[in-house]
Design goal:
heterodimer, A: alpha/beta, five-stranded mixed beta sheet, 14 helices, 7% strand, B: six-stranded mixed beta sheet, elongated
Chain lengths: 377, 296
């Protein structure tokens, strides 16, 4: 029997047993719920309760107020209008947030302008535009004009890092607890009488990783689909590349972290010791996560972010983030991925040895130094 | 034939195996005996590659044991363990496939063994929902489901009730009769004497005795001599410094003598003291043999 069949048998068991477990279905349902709520709730809440304050400079056509009333009622958007003495006062109110939109109607009969703070509130502008439809058409202006895809990229980068962190860590932890469970229930000795320890670890990482990938694909498809359907964003042209990299870096990040966690799990004898044993890796993961969200998101082309790109434990979060923000060179992605793959390989060879050495040892947690000594026996 | 050749293994300063060699012949039940910490589990783990010996090797049918050979072995470790939340039938089928069976064969073998172990109605139950005794049966099933050529069982009788012991004995005898090699460790010496043909006794990492139980007993230099002289107690023994009394109960005296003891002389001395109701000369029981070789 080939080793690959052993690896696949182990992976398939993880897929089937965990795939139908309550824990997985619950986690899947919960994440889907959070994503859908995050996308649909703001527009529902905003539409139902929020009142849009529209400032008006000058005198709009006589039909404007009537039409505005009809259209806003029809689209379930509350609009409260107020007269503003001049454009400068109105822009000040926009910046302070006491106005959501400003309609400027020049007294010389020129084209009216609709001013917002930033491109966010699409419905107010559309309603104002529609209310003016019988008269002159409307030009739009933003106080802080930006790249039209900037907000979406920022959102993708943010959400991407969070999704990656959650996915890598959720499923990495499953590998950790799976290894400890096998050790604690002692079934591992039966399994190892036919399966090589390294193949067992590989199969476990593979099977749980496939489950993680299923969940990630569902999250991305549902998230993007719902976002487009709810008109929360339009997909920027870089979406495909960003999503492809999200999957790539989930694979690499998960393989890296779950292998490390699996090896550390073998050092524990009981579930109570598992999180203790895993703490070095948890610490690194948290560091990488906060670095990505705080430092790299703030300055994705900065020196710190560029250096972090080539540090394998950080790369799985920094690289997709920089990609989503369009702040990375293709060669950096390639080199970073190659470095991460090499690290996974080294970790697997070295960690696999440690895992084989200590997996049958029971009675208390084994220190890393002790584990290394045992694995050389 | 399973051959253990000159196995040695140290853990730091602890010597687990110190040049242990023995063989187990298929078709014969072999009991593997030794005090705690003598090296039984380490030797068994070496057969399955779970422990890499510092020296020596294990062979099956003349060939060094490798991964392929192990697929035809069945193992029951001392520390029992299966997947608690996995269904019983899925579990056995999983292990059968790890031994190289196709999914279809594994399923059929699982059904057959669950029937044989009286667990057919629990096939879809999770392991953790079974009683302790039934979990033990599933564990035995995991070692047997792929019809192995060699069974290695570490303390298969520990924790079993009399009914479980009977079932286990029956299955082991039946497997041996089918030509399978069966090696199991145990501390229940009377049980081993009852059901095994051969024993291997290990102490401090070395094999101190091995062979057919009957031959080992006969080869012992010592014999028990039970003598009962009506109404005489042990008075007839006074002055006989050459005889060691092991036990005295009323008129019955158990003596430890050499295999070449002067039986006629002893009988004459006993007869002179009164009516001899019992005079029995026999080789030591396995448990006595065990004490002898382990302490010697």
């Amino acid at each position: 029997m080939s080793r690959w069949r052993s690896v696949w048998l182990v992976a398939r068991r993880e897929l089937i047993e965990r795939g139908r477990s309550r824990a997985f279905l619950l986690s899947l349902g919960l994440t889907m719920g959070i994503i859908l709520a995050g996308i649909f709730l703001p527009s529902l809440i905003g539409g139902a309760t929020g009142t849009n304050r529209l400032g008006i400079v000058g005198n709009p056509p006589p039909t404007f107020y009537a039409q505005l009333g009809v259209i806003s009622a029809a689209s379930n958007v509350k609009i409260q209008t107020e007269q503003v003495p001049d454009e400068a006062t109105g822009e000040g109110d926009l910046r302070s947030g006491s106005l959501d939109g400003l309609l400027v109607v020049p007294s010389d009969g020129g084209l009216p302008t609709f001013v917002v703070k930033e491109r966010k509130n699409g419905s107010l502008g559309q309603i104002v535009g529609a209310s003016l439809s019988s008269g002159p058409s409307l030009t739009f202006r933003e106080l802080t004009p930006a790249d039209p895809n900037r907000d979406t990229s920022f959102l993708f980068a943010n959400v991407g890092v969070i999704l990656l962190f959650i996915s890598i860590f959720t499923f990495g932890t499953w590998v950790l607890t799976g290894v400890v469970e096998e050790k604690q229930s002692r079934v591992v000795e039966v399994v190892l009488s036919t399966v090589d320890a390294r193949d067992l670890l590989m199969g476990k990482v593979l099977g749980i990783g496939l489950l993680g990938l299923v969940q990630l694909v569902l999250m991305v498809v549902v998230g993007l689909g719902a976002g487009v359907a709810a008109r929360r964003f339009t997909l920027p042209p870089a979406t495909f590349g960003a999503v492809a990299q999200l999957f790539l870096w989930f694979g690499l990040g998960y393989a890296l972290y779950s292998t490390a966690l699996g090896v550390l799990g073998a050092l524990a004898s009981r579930m109570e010791e598992a999180s203790n044993a895993a703490s070095p890796v948890s610490f690194i993961a948290m560091g990488a996560y906060f670095f990505s969200l705080i430092v790299a998101l703030d300055d994705p082309s900065g020196t710190a972010a560029r250096i972090a790109t080539f540090i394998p434990p950080v790369a799985p979060m920094v690289v997709p983030l920089r990609t989503a923000l369009g702040a990375i060179e293709p060669w950096e992605v390639v080199v970073s991925a190659a470095l991460t793959v090499a690290t996974i390989w080294v970790l697997f060879v070295v960690g696999g040895r440690v895992y084989s050495g200590v997996i049958l040892r029971t009675g208390g947690r084994i220190g890393l130094r002790e584990a290394w000594r045992i694995s050389r026996q | 034939m399973l051959e253990i050749i000159d196995l040695a293994k140290r853990y730091g300063t602890v010597v687990a195996l110190d040049g242990a060699s023995f063989a187990a012949t298929p078709g014969r039940l072999v009991g593997f005996l030794g005090p705690n910490g003598a090296g039984k589990t380490t030797a068994m783990r070496c057969v399955f590659g779970l422990v890499r010996p510092d020296r020596g090797e294990t062979r099956w049918n003349g060939q060094p044991i490798d991964r392929t050979a192990r697929l035809r072995f069945g193992y029951m470790p001392e520390q029992r363990g299966l997947y608690p939340r996995m269904r019983v039938a899925d579990q056995l089928s999983y292990f059968a496939q790890h031994h190289g069976m196709t999914a279809r064969d594994a399923k059929a073998a699982t059904a057959r063994w669950l029937e044989r172990l009286g667990l057919a109605d629990r096939a879809r139950s999770k392991l953790e929902d079974l009683s302790h005794g039934n979990q033990q049966r599933v564990q035995l099933g995991a070692a047997l489901v792929h019809d192995p050529e060699l069974l290695v069982l570490d303390e298969p009788f520990s924790g079993l009730d009399p009914l479980g012991i009977a079932t286990m004995s029956e299955i082991l005898r039946e497997r041996a009769a089918a030509g399978v090699g069966v090696l199991f460790s145990s501390h229940q010496l009377d049980l081993v004497e009852d059901i095994c043909e051969d024993v291997v006794i290990i102490a401090r990492g070395k094999i101190v005795a091995h062979g057919a139980i009957d031959e080992l007993r006969a080869a012992s230099a010592r014999r028990h001599l039970d003598v009962e002289v009506v109404g005489a107690g042990g008075s007839w023994l006074d002055g006989r410094r050459d005889l060691t009394v092991v036990e005295r109960r009323g008129d019955l005296v158990r003596l430890l003598v050499g295999a070449d003891a002067d039986l006629a002389g002893i009988l004459a001395a006993a007869s002179a003291a009164g009516t001899v109701r019992r005079f029995a000369f026999q080789p030591p029981a396995l448990s006595e043999l065990f004490m002898e070789v382990v302490q010697g």
